[in-house]
Amino acid sequence: MSQIPTELHYTKEHEWVAPTATALRVRIGITDYAQAALGDIVYVQMPKVGDEVKADSVCGEIESTKSVSEIFAPVSGKVVAINESLDATPELVNSDPYGAGWLAEIEVAGEPQGLLTAAEYGAITG
Prior knowledge:
Layout: E1 9-10, E2 15-19, E3 25-30, H1 32-38, E4 41-45, E5 52-53, E6 58-64, E7 68-72, E8 77-82, H2 85-88, H3 92-95, E9 104-107, H4 118-125
Antiparallel strand pairs: 1-2, 2-3, 3-9, 4-6, 5-8, 6-7, 8-9
């Protein structure tokens, strides 16, 4: 059974969104369900700091021993930080998808819309 923290919001494409201590800044990553489906992650490619991303558009890739999968931006905004630890240790996405395996921080214009609650996401992943 996948972990689905109740304090986060989710997308149908298996990304999560968490508020940060800074107003209008969110942290994003992929869910436990997604990392388990991918298998051993060997490479993560994310947008650069300063890039603008658009919700539901491809903003990066994750390569595992099984496949290469696209990462979709769960929100629109400006990338203000990326998890540089993933360059050397991409497997953090497997071992701690909601903590040390986060992908990026995005500055948003307002409260993100159209995201799923933990219960709604859990209904999708069953």
